[in-house]
Amino acid sequence: MPSASTPFSGTRPVALVTGGAHRLGREIVLHLAGRGWDVAVHYHRSAQAAEAVCAEARAFGGRAHAISADLFDPAAVQTVLPQAVAALGQVDAVVNNAALFAFDDALHFSTAAAQQHYQVNTIAPVLLAQALHAHVCTRGVPGCVVNLLDQKLSNPDPDYLSYTLSKAALQAATVALAQALAPALRVVGVAPGLMLPSGPMTEDEFTRVHNRTPLQRGSTPQDVAQAVHFALHARAMTGTTLLVDGGQHLAGTGRDVLFGARGN
C-alpha cells in the first residue's frame, strides 16, 4: 500500500503506462503494482502480452486494465486516458514509455521517418500530459507525468537521428510542460542507458557496453522502474531529468552503443 506520505489521493493511486506489455514497460507496470498502484496497461498490437501483464499485476492485490490504442494516430491517443478513467475511476500519473526506435542517420533521414518518430515519441506524450492535466484539475488533486528519455541526449552521437530528435523534443517538452502545467501536474524525465540487447546486438556486445561504463554496469529495467517510482513520489521534483545509466553518459563514444560495442 502507498505510504501516508503519498502525494496522490486515495489509498491506491492509478498509473497509466504506455507500451506496458513488454520489456521496460512491463517492468514498470509490475514494479508499481507491487508498491500499491493500480495500473492501466497501454498496448498497440500485443493484446495477449498486455493481458498477461495485467494478470501478474493483479496478483499484487490491485486492479489492472489493458487499453489498446495506436499512438501513430492522434485521434486514438485522445482516447487512451478516457479509457483508463472509465476502467479504473481515475488516473493519477502517466508514464510515457512507448517509443519508436528505428535506425536512420543524416544520410538516410526522411520526412516520413521523422514524422513517425515525432508522433509516437513526442506528440503522443504531450497529448497525454495535456489530458492528465485536465483530468486532475477536474478532480482537484495533483498528478505526475514521467517521460522516458535517453542518456544519449547527454552523450550525443549521430546515429538514430529521427529517434534522437524526437527524444530531444520530448526533453524540451518535459521542461515546458512542467512550467505550464504546475502546480497541478509535475513532469519529470527519466533517461535510461542501454538496458536490454536491441536489434542485432549480441549478448557479448551488450556485456561489453555495460563494462565500459564508469560503474561497470549499465542500467537494468529494474533500475529504471525504481527511478520512475521515485519520480512519481518526489513532491518537489519537476522539469528535470534523472539519468539512470551506470554513468554511460560520462563515457562518450561518438557512436551509438551498438557501433561502439563493435569498435566502429
Total beta-strand segments:
7
Distance between the termini: 48 Å
Mean pLDDT: 92
Structural class: alpha/beta
Sheet with the most strands: spatial strand order: 3-2-1-4-5-6-7
Secondary-structure element series: EHEHEHEHEHEHHEH
Shape: globular
- Alpha-carbon Rg, integer: 18 Å
Percentage beta strand: 5-15%
Uncertain ranges: none
Largest sheet, if any?
7 strands, parallel
What is the percent of helical residues? 40-55%
What is the count of DSSP helices, taking H or I runs of 4+ residues? 8
Write a concise synopsis of the structure shown.
By secondary structure, the chain is of the alpha/beta class. It has helices at residues 23-33, 47-58, 74-88, 111-139, 161-181, 203-211, 221-233, 257-261; strands at 14-17, 38-43, 64-68, 93-96, 143-148, 185-192, 241-244.
What descriptors fit this protein?
7-stranded parallel beta sheet; alpha/beta; globular; 264 residues
Explain what you see.
The chain is α/β, with parallel strands linked by helices and 264 residues long. It has a 7-stranded parallel sheet, with helices on both faces. Strand 4, helix 4 and strand 5 form a beta-alpha-beta unit. Helix 1 crosses helix 7. It starts with 13 loop residues before the first strand and ends with a helix. The model has no long low-confidence stretch (mean pLDDT 92).
